[in-house]
Amino acid sequence: MILQDWWFTTLMGVKEPIRSPLKGDTKTDVLVVGAGASGLAAALKLASSGSKVVLIDKNICGGSSTGKSAGFLTPDSELELSQLLRKYGTTGAKDLWEVAAKGVEIMVSNIKEHKIECDLQVQDCLFIGKGASGWKDVQDEVEARKKIGYSSTLYTESEVPSVLGSKAYSGAIRYTGTYGVNPLLYAQGIKEVLLDKGVEIYESSEVLSYDDHTVRTHLGSVTADKIIFCIDKPKKEITKYSEDVYHAQTFLSISEPLGDNDIANLFPQGPLQCWDSDLIYTYFRLTGTKRLLVGGGDMLTTYAKNDTTTARVINRVINNLKEKIPSIRNLRFIQYWQGRIDMTRDLIPTVLRDPARPWTHFVLGCVGLPWATFCGDFAARNVLDSKELDDEKFYRYFSADRKFFIPTWMENILGKQLVFTINNAWAKYKQRDATSKI
Ligand SMILES: Cc1cc2nc3c(=O)[nH]c(=O)nc-3n(C[C@H](O)[C@H](O)[C@H](O)COP(=O)(O)OP(=O)(O)OC[C@H]3O[C@@H](n4cnc5c(N)ncnc54)[C@H](O)[C@@H]3O)c2cc1C
Fold it and tell me: What pLDDT score was predicted for residue 428?
């Protein structure tokens, strides 16, 4: 198995996977820095409303987290609905679930409207419980969905094999409205749309400094009336809000194509996108090319500061999955890769207008393609001043002044890595927002 991102392998058929870097000085109405799901959504919203837009990225469009992701398009992220319900109460949970559902809707409608070839698969979600605690998690999710008014199907232990070829799980919940996608082809497809709309796109162009209305790269500069930063792993030279994000590492692998019989054994009622109830969960889905994509991680590497590039972790994830699903025991996996997802201390994105420079907006720590898409679109809407009734409400959810279980100053003593780990776990399993009314 080789270390290579499968989605990059699929770019070999793409006409223009990389644009020239920014050279010289240019001016524009709006500059978007960062061309992941959030920056692309921002640029598309702005370009569609007639603004002159420049988009720059230090990689290729989608080259960071977006193009490393597994391409599950679901409102679920690190926070499941039952966890949002506990944290925010019914109204807040619904607000935030619908943020991500709206992100899914924007992405799917972009794919359909612009006929982007990115292996869009309609795939229901299957959240699978492991052991007694996993069965409880599944039931909590069913209850949360009922309470908020969303439908779902519950499978008991003996019913799980009717949808997934395994007798190793204690139950599962399934729901619709979710999709699978090749996320890098999606990003490159949006790039084409933006170029058609006249957006200037520069790749391999890292913003190295930022002063007033001007950002500088190694060969040029852009001066803009408004600037939106949709970047990952932000450096403190660019923004003090770099303090608000850290990352979690996860690993992915792709198999050789499965035969039709193997697919029928694996998914007796048709392909689903699945993840389990473990803290560091295993997730898998079938691509349109009939390959199995498997992801996961472990406690030691999730919050590690640096990339882990060996296959050790993903091999263990694959072997554990093979023990549970007999029909894939002989399946060969050909490529693996890892990525680090930016996240905040409570796993909710930070989106803000910089009070010191109100022409500058930041979109940081979006966990999930749909969240990133919503937040990029939201920031662009506010740049355009086309405010909607909900905007101030979302600025409150996404504010940089949120309270956390372990206060930020403790990071000077305990270190960012440990404090983030504890605050993330607290947000997931314990936190109740002070304003929540369940
Ligand atoms: C292995 C893996 C699997 C995942 N699986 C899923 C999944 O199945 N479903 C899902 O919804 N989410 C998944 N995610 C999470 C998802 O990928 C991210 O939450 C999402 O892509 C974030 O999008 P973004 O636009 O905020 O950030 P990014 O995609 O990271 O985009 C930020 C961009 O900013 C650029 N940038 C950074 N600094 C600079 C600078 N100084 N100058 C210029 N450009 C800069 C980067 O190059 C990058 O392109 C996964 C992530 C990983 C790593």
Answer: 83
Q: Start-end ranges of CATH 3.50.50.60 in the chain?
A: 2-68+184-236+346-429
Q: Is 201 in the pocket of ligand 1 (CB under 6 A)?
A: no
Model pLDDT, residue 388: 67
- pTM reported for the whole predicted model: 0.96
Residues of the chain with pLDDT under 70: 386-389, 433-438
Q: What is the pLDDT of residue 437?
A: 43
Report the first-to-last Cα separation within the chain, whole angstroms.
Answer: 48
Among 431, 435, 434, residue whose Cα is nearest residue 86: 431
Give residue 341 CA to ligand 1 midpoint distance, Å. 6
Q: Which CATH superfamily is domain 2-68+184-236+346-429 in?
A: FAD/NAD(P)-binding domain (3.50.50.60)
Cα 131 to Cα 157, 220, 273: the distances in Å are 10, 56, 20
| Spatial separation of the C-alpha atoms in residues 55 and 61, rounded to whole Å | 9
Give me ligand 1 centre to Cα 339, in Å: 9
pLDDT at position 427 is 86
Domain with CATH 3.30.9.10 in the chain: 125-176+246-343
Distances (CA, A) of 247 to 141, 332, 348, 405: 26, 30, 13, 18
Instruction: Return the H-helix or E-strand segment holding 137.
Output: helix 131-148
CATH fold, domain 125-176+246-343, is D-Amino Acid Oxidase; Chain A, domain 2 (3.30.9)
